[in-house]
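Exercise 3.2. Students should predict the tertiary structure of the chain below and write it as structure tokens, then compare their answer with the key that follows.

Predict this chain's 3D structure.
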Amino acid sequence: MRERDAARAADAQAQAQVRQAAAQIAVAQQNLQTVIVNRDALKGDVDSARAALELAEIDLANTRITAPDDGQLGQLAVRTGAYVTAGTRLTSVVPNHKWIIANLKETQLANIRPGLPVTIRVDALDGKRFTGQVEFISPAAGSEFSAISPDNATGNFVKIAQRIPVRIRINDQDMHQLRPGMSVEVNIDTAAQPAGEGAP
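Answer key:
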């Protein structure tokens, strides 16, 4: 009899332990579900914070004005505190790399080709001489790029030599002495071998 009571007591205790373990499992599962929900919510908060950071970085970048090329600021068109809209000209930038545009007559282009050496004389610098090279010959006369192209069918019977822009690269390191808009005299050595061409 005592053994049966002891067995019943042991069985009841075991069942109680099972129920307790099941309750603990249920609590653990509920806690896990809460953690998962909180994790998803925190992940959403992190994503929102990242999006806000990216937007703030874009806004910060939009407050900086950068030039497309290296150079010096020219005339400022606006002052501090002025309101501007998209497309407003703020300033002009004088590039560090300078070149010369020589508007040659079409009758002077027969022997002109890229790579020919050029001597440049600058009156504003007491006749100082620079060296350079023909870099590019325009594919059309300067008049073709003007706002109003001249019409030669208006009774002009005199042939007028057109001007062709020729771009000249300056070789000298002290080109910083030159200023945009200066007048110069160029002498293109048409008898020389263009740079980059080997002897035949």
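Discussion points: The first helix runs from residue 2 to 62. The radius of gyration is 41 Å.
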